[in-house]
Amino acid sequence: MTRYILRRLIAMPFLVLGIVTLAFLLTTVTKGDPLAAIVSDRQMNDPEAVAAAKARWGLDRSLPERYVIYVRNLLTGDMGTSFITRRPVAQDVLFRLPATMELVIAAMLVGSTIGIALGVLAAYFRNTPTDHLARFFALIGSSVPVFWLGLALLYVFSVKLGILPGPGRLDPRAALPPRITGFMTIDTLLAGNVKLFIDAVWHLILPAFVLGWAVAGTISRLVRANMLEVLDREFILTARSKGAGEFRVVIRHALRNTLVPTLTVIGYSFAYLLTGAVLTETIFSWPGMGSYAVDAARGLDFPAIIGVTIVGGIVFLVTNLLTDVAYVIANPRVRLG
Amino acid sequence: MSALSFSSFRRVGWISLPLAVGIAIVLFWLVVTFLAPVMSSYDPIDMVGRRLQAPSWQHWLGTDALGRDVLSRTLHGARHSLPIAVIVVALSVAIGALLGAISGFIGGLGGAAIMRLVDVTLSFPPMLLAMAVAASLGPGLENAAIAMVIVWWPVYARLMRAQVLEVREREHVEAAIAAGASRPRVLLKHILPLCWTPVLISATMDLGQVILLAASLSFIGLGAAPPTPEWGSMISDGAAQFYSWWVALGPGLAILTIVLGFNFVGDGLHDYFDPKSK
Amino acid sequence: MRQEPLFSVQDLRVSFGRHGHQFEAVRGINLHVDHGEVLGIVGESGSGKSVGMLAALGLQAKTAQVRGSAKFRGRELVGMPRRELRTLRGSRIGMIFQDPLSSLNPVMTVGAQIAETILLHNSAVSKKAALDRAVELLALVAISQPDRRIHQFPHEFSGGMRQRVMIAMAVANDPDLLIADEPTTALDVTVQAQIMDVLGDLKKRLNLGLILITHDLGVLAGHADRVAVVYSGEVVEQAGIDDLFERPSHPYTRGLIASIPDMSEEKDRLFSIEGAPPPLGRLPGGCAFHPRCPQVQPICRTAAPVLRTYEGHSASCHFADIPAEGAA
Predict the structure, then answer these.
(1) Are C51 and B3 in contact (CB < 8 Å)?
(2) What is the ipTM of this complex?
(3) In chain B, at which end, N or C, are there fewer CB atoms within 10 A of the end residue's CB?
């Protein structure tokens, strides 16, 4: 087991280098002209201004040169400077990462709760209307475009019904708590402001639900399949013969036995969450990495695009590694390598 | 005997139902794709009414900020989304299957290199990578499509490689090799024909996902350029006219139903080929 | 006056399917067992012997319908509210199943599983006390180092040891009745005898009523007091064990006896009854056994035999050596 984890850890730097290289290549060996983002149309006619801009952003060097410089800078934590914000990309990304993490974690909680509940219900009441309804609800989650769902729910719950707050992480009139972790829910608590904390949680509900529903479908499908298999196993009969109630049989005996694959699919669903977060953040004016990435892509802000893509890839890589390691630890009978 | 074997008497109601519903939805949108100009009463690009009119008998789904008929635009949207999705998936399958089969059957340094490229590409959250590539290629539906192929082909490469590795070990393949068949012949005649089923099921399900991804790219302005009636950019228009809810309703429902349709079909096929999961 | 037996089943019927596609897996069986008594139920796979016993305890599949009567200490179990039935299962009535590996929860320690049975029925008992009791129970079924082994998972036990764990779990609350469904089938021959000894020992110590369900009549020899032979969802013969072996009245019983492997005689081939049991739902007319019966007569194809009883020995065969007007 230790050897398996070690082997994965050793592979990590190579994969990260792969990620960096691929992100660099895919965003530079293309016809998109970064100059257009830096230099105004008027200056484009001025060869001197163009040359100066090229020198300023290192665009006058050859591609391999730029790659080597980029990787070397990256090792010191330097991802270049954003064309738009004119701040170091690493700083921008780090500043925005907590907001995304907060949203993604909340969405994961919502998504796994809904997904597990639907999966268990569907499996227990297999081939009944409950099962069909649960599967249908889950399927809608994986079929609906999150950006549209976000708009629709904002319109219904915030504008029409007025029971949930609008976009953003806090009431725009509220004073921000001192930034310590970057997690609004934690920072408000650290500031001792319970009212603000509740407001932060309140603001999380809609985006977390929109994002969570999308992964609930995947999770419920897997939970249902695993539960169907487990519910047919003999030890379920044993549990009933011991006098255990149905709730106990389903949760403590059956669901507990699907824990490992369930945790695994929840871990892997991180990719969907990061993907969905890009759009959810845009809809909900969420100041995270996703909306940063969208702004960068729209503004052809290449240092920011590459940076955010690399960070996204690394976050994704680490989560998958953690999932795999958790899988090995949680499942004593799997002995990998 | 145990009471458990009686589970085999379970009713099987769900398998055919989603497949039927899914096929119906997909067929509906296929018809729309071909007949959109005939079915819609207005031109999708022209200003045909007052701005931002709520749904009415004249404009069933209202009009947008430029006075264009949302229903007509939604119907015409199928002409962009469906073909793009089919092309992206077809290209991804072609590239992925080819490279995956090469990697699985021939192996060696080239095969390993292909798989490392697959590993690295799949290490990115797909949307983020597609966005980055689409942004550097510049806006436009074709560039968005290229970006999606770059993100998507490794999925099929991995799947195809796994299939080829499994089928390669079967007796009839070993018999063919022993009989002196050439390697390309073994691959083409004896291995590939047995590898397609999971690849095609996966491709069907992915059609829906690709439609979603394409719409997402358009939504953030990296796909179709205005005034193209593309669903994603129409929802983007709707977001700009947030209080005129109907502007985004048509395209949203369009994406929802067609993706649901493909998911139903994929689910149905999955159950059909893997009855264990019923 | 005859006392009410510990557990009795009367005309129990279990059917599956719906809307005209119904078929009966258990077609009216009558059984009873008392404290300190061992009842063997023997029959082939699919004869309905397990299904019937499970159904009596409310453990039938969701699609099954149960009719008839099953009484435990005078209380009717068929139609009893689930909640009430649960208080009996695991407490007054213990069960053991065929495959001890799949019957134990793979992700719970053995101790936790035994303790669960205790805690489910004794809200006053602490977790600690329940675990202590689990140690005692493992010792009772002769597992060495029980205080260490309660912390282990089922996959760390051997097949025979797992079945001992199942038994310990089944008797955790000193039940009155123990139902063992093929308890030795999945085990090695040498281990089978040990498990049967454990069960016999417990029966004596706890004065249990024991129902042994098996497809192997040989397992019952020397262990059961009475035997019920089940074929196609019906009891076709029932008698004291010695009586049954000496004077089997049903041709099916004779076939089962002949197919017991005999260690003392060197036979080239084991006798086995020809053919297979009829598929449920497509029973032949007349006597259900007639297509496989070596002594089949024309009447067997047309008329179903009636169960006749004489001096505690009953059989349903047209040609059973039992007087038509029994003195039962």
Answers:
(1) yes
(2) 0.87
(3) C
Domain CATH number, residue C15: 3.40.50.300
Query: What are φ and ψ of residue C268, in 5° steps?
Result: -70, -45
Write out pLDDT tens, residues B15-63: 567 788 889 999 999 999 998 888 887 888 888 778 888 888 888 888 8
- In terms of CA atoms, which chain B residue is nearest residue A148? B252
The CA distance from A32 to A52, in Å, is 19
- Exposed/middle/buried for A76, CB within 10 Å: 0-12, 13-18, 19+? exposed
In sequence order, the β-bridge partners of residue A131 are: none
- Per CB-CB distance under 8 Å, the chain C contacts of B1 are 45-47, 50-51
Contact, A289 vs A312, CB < 8 A?
yes
Q: How many alpha carbons fall within 13 Å on the CB side of residue B276?
A: 7
Pair of tokens at residue B41: 């009463």
Instruction: Judge whether C255 lies within some domain.
Output: yes
Q: What is the pLDDT of residues B121-164, one digit of tens each?
A: 998 988 899 999 998 888 888 999 999 999 999 999 999 999 88
Residues 6+ apart with CB under 8 A from C296: C290
Closest chain B C-alpha to C20 CA, distance in angstroms: 14
Q: Which two tokens stand for residue A56?
A: 């300023």
Q: Give the distance from CA B152 to its chain's centroid.
A: 10
- Please tell me the distance from the alpha carbon of residue B249 to that of residue B251, in angstroms, as a whole number: 6
Nearest Cα of chain A lies from the Cα of B272 at a distance, in angstroms, of 14
Mean pLDDT of chain C: 88
Global pTM value: 0.84
Mean pLDDT score, C165-174: 93
Mean pLDDT of A274-303: 90
Rounded to the nearest angstrom, the minimum Cα separation between B211 and chain A is: 10
Enumerate domains of chain A plus CATH numbers. 2-75 (no CATH), 95-330 (1.10.3720.10)
